[in-house]
Structure to design on (787 residues):
């Protein structure tokens, strides 16, 4: 039975269908990569959810000994992580992204530091420029891994800039006491220092197929970076701009950053509304409470509203629950949690 | 890759002085405008005068880097992208139409429906599987009082989202007479008014459309008209310049469903005409007050009320062709309810307005804009210019346009003017043909 092949069908969001075969008991993602399917993935160990998709026909289960970060309820609803799944029959999966998305392969590039600037009590803005002859493509919301010079360890950050700004890229980086990247940025980083980056990674990105419906963005701390990239991409894209609501928060007013960038975008985009939140010590014009608490009745008037959330896990959980309560469909909520790495 | 040396790109650094009216912060506020070298797309633009397109005639032109072909059938004007989807030939270069509902590419016979742009057949390959599955972009057309307007859209801009033409035309009177009172002159006519008679001309300007557009409502530019014949023949008081008196000198209009633009409160106490410069011993000697008012709306339409005479209004467009050419439109509008009034307006146009105003007066604007072009043509001028108080008008316009444009045109691709140094440009120039607006059709001789 081991040599039995199952036929896997992938239905991408843009209507394109791809098929490939996988041996019974074998890893579906490995077979997909071998067959050059345009699928997204990153950790290949059941953790990051980049390869998440929805089983609509057939039987696919988590491989013995593997652990998937899916909830039981999500598994029951048909969600699968391809990187830890095997097929027990012919299977059909719905992919939430278009077939051209995954064809953006990750690559390694070098970049020169243009500037390192402290923009909030614990946030640095890092601006870099890709080296001569080097290039990459990324979707707004995806992240890059940056090698911390000297230490060789990797840290993941989403550009706050867009594809249009290349060869320049901008990152918003939270400073953590004693953190590897933080120590480098505070003590060593300088103009013309060379960094090694790889990417893009991740399935958290602006969905082109939803670009005409109202958008809600909820960002906590430096979770603002991928959101700024998304807002700028919508601004630069063709046609009528959708209504956009940004709810962004930090702990205290001193921790806030990128206020001018947000104001500028409000000036450029009549359809962008911004609510700036702090957990404590709110001053005039700031909402007291989390960016989730700033969401209110009436914010979701269109049932097709799409939401993008980026921040710590508790914020994402609360925002997801609140948005569903307000009328956003679960499948239209896209989230990325960021994990603090020292 | 690790064997390759890692090399820094060429770095260009600019410092922006804070003493300028356009300091770094102000500049960032109109960054989208700085990005709009090829114009604002998804707007209505004038394409031709009606008299330039007879029944069954085909004409090609380019707007915002988009090649367009117009054909009139049974009186109605249709507009399609003038670039065959097969291999990019311009349909207008050698018009070929076999019926009233299509236009064919004269090279390989790809044939398109005039209304939808659908590929309906290929002359010598009617069974090809491509037929019926694809097409070229179509553009909404509106013809009014002798002018043909086209909504130049991106390929994926939904037709349902196309706004009315009036949203891309200047403020109308008398419905705005209370909002923008004009005690010194009668209500200005509109292109859309019943019995509006429109006379004017269009010609190619050699420079970026923004340079041309800003000239019209820049209140310091009137110095270039100091020595114009009509000013002296009519003994007009045309100031050396006009200075703003306060922040309320310009109103920005952002009505939800209407034109977006700005109105300048000229000839009120909000602006101070400058009639003398003692340092240079200059003084304006005219006798007759010449009141006028300029306003501008997206996508770059100038209105000069009460100009050149009462009951007449001058409109101008600076329709982007490429990033360094634009079609300069000047029209004069007057409501003429009788044949007699029409005749009189025509006579006045032929023997006064056209020679003395559109040519004598506005020719100065044309060369003044060209004189500015080199400074801006490589992009550095937008960073290096040092604007002053009187430049409040262009700065306000740039910010307003950054906010309300419906899209920034992408640089032209696969079209004339996308590259500046091709052999075809040299050939045409050597043959005596300037870069221009309309497509020169192939003649069989």
């Amino acid at each position: 039975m081991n040599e039995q092949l199952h036929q896997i069908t992938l239905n991408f969001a843009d209507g394109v269908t791809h098929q490939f075969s996988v041996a019974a008991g074998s890893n579906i993602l490995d077979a997909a990569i071998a067959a050059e399917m345009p699928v997204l993935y990153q950790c290949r160990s059941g953790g990051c959810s980049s390869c998440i998709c929805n089983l609509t026909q057939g039987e696919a289960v988590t491989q013995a000994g593997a652990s998937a970060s899916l909830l039981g309820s999500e598994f029951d609803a048909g969600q699968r992580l391809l990187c830890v799944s095997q097929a027990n029959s012919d299977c059909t999966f719905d992919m939430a992204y278009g077939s051209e998305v995954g064809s953006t392969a990750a690559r390694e590039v070098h970049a020169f530091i243009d500037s390192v600037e402290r923009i909030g009590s614990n946030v640095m803005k890092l601006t870099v420029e890709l080296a001569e002859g080097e290039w990459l493509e990324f979707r707004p919301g995806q992240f890059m891994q940056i090698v911390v010079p000297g230490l060789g360890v990797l840290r993941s950050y989403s550009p706050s800039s867009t594809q249009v700004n290349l060869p320049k890229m901008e990152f918003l980086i939270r400073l953590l006491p004693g953190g590897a990247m933080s120590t480098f940025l505070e003590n060593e980083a300088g103009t013309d220092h060379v960094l090694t980056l790889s990417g893009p990674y991740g399935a958290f990105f602006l969905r082109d197929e939803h670009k005409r419906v109202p958008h809600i963005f909820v960002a906590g701390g430096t979770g603002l970076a991928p959101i700024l990239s998304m807002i700028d991409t919508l601004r630069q894209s063709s046609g009528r701009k959708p209504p956009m609501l940004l709810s962004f928060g930090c702990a205290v007013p001193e921790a806030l950053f990128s206020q001018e960038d947000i104001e500028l975008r409000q000036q450029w985009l009549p359809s962008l509304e911004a609510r700036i939140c702090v957990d404590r010590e709110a001053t005039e014009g700031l909402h007291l409470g989390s960016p989730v608490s700033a969401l209110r009745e009436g914010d979701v008037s269109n049932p097709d509203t799409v939401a993008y959330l980026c921040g710590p896990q508790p914020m994402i959980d609360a925002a997801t629950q609140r948005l569903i309560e307000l009328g956003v469909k679960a499948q239209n909520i896209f989230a990325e949690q960021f994990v603090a790495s020292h | 890759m690790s064997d390759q040396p890692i090399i820094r790109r060429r770095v260009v650094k600019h410092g922006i002085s804070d003493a300028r009216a356009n300091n770094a912060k102000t500049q960032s506020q109109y960054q989208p405008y700085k990005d709009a070298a090829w114009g604002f797309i998804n707007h209505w633009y004038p394409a031709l005068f009606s008299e330039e397109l007879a029944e069954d005639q085909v004409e090609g032109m380019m707007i915002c880097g988009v090649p367009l072909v117009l054909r009139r059938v049974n009186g109605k004007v249709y507009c399609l992208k003038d670039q065959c989807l097969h291999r990019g030939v311009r349909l207008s270069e050698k018009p070929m139409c076999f019926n009233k509902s299509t236009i064919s590419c004269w090279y390989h016979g790809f044939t398109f429906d005039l209304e939808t742009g659908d590929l309906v057949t290929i002359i010598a390959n009617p069974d090809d599987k491509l037929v019926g599955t694809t097409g070229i972009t179509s553009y909404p057309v509106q013809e009014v009082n002798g002018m043909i307007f086209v909504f130049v859209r991106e390929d994926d801009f939904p037709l349902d989202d196309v706004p009315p033409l009036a949203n891309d035309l200047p403020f109308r009177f008398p419905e705005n007479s209370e909002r923008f009172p004009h005690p010194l002159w009668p209500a200005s006519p509109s292109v859309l008014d019943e019995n509006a008679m429109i006379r004017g001309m269009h010609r190619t300007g050699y420079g970026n459309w923004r340079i041309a557009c800003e000239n019209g409502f820049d209140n310091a530019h009137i110095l270039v008209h100091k020595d114009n014949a009509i000013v002296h023949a009519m003994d007009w008081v045309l100031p050396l310049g006009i200075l703003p008196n306060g922040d309320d000198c310009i109103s920005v209009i952002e009505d939800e469903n209407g034109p977006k633009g700005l109105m300048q409160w000229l000839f009120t106490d909000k602006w101070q005409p400058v009639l003398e410069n003692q340092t240079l011993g200059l003084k304006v000697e005219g006798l007759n007050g010449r009141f006028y008012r300029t306003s501008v709306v997206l996508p770059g339409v100038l209105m000069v009320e009460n100009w050149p005479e009462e009951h007449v209004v001058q409109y101008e467009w600076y329709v982007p062709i490429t990033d360094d050419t634009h079609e300069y439109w000047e029209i004069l509008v007057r409501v003429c309810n009788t044949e007699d009034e029409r005749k009189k307006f025509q006579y006045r146009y032929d023997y006064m307005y056209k020679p003395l105003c559109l040519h004598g007066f506005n020719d100065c604007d044309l060369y003044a804009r060209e004189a500015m072009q080199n400074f801006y043509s490589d992009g550095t001028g937008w960073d290096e210019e040092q604007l002053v108080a009187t430049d409040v008008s262009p700065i306000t316009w740039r910010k307003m346009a950054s906010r309300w444009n419906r899209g920034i045109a992408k640089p032209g691709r696969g079209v004339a003017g996308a590259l500046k140094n091709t052999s075809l440009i040299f050939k045409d120039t050597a043959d005596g043909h300037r870069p221009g607006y309309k497509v020169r059709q192939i003649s069989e001789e």
User: Anything to note?
Assistant: The interface with chain A takes residues 1, 4, 6-9, 11, 28-29, 31-32, 41-42, 154, 156-158, 161, 254, 399, 402-404, 406-408 of chain B (CB under 8 Å).
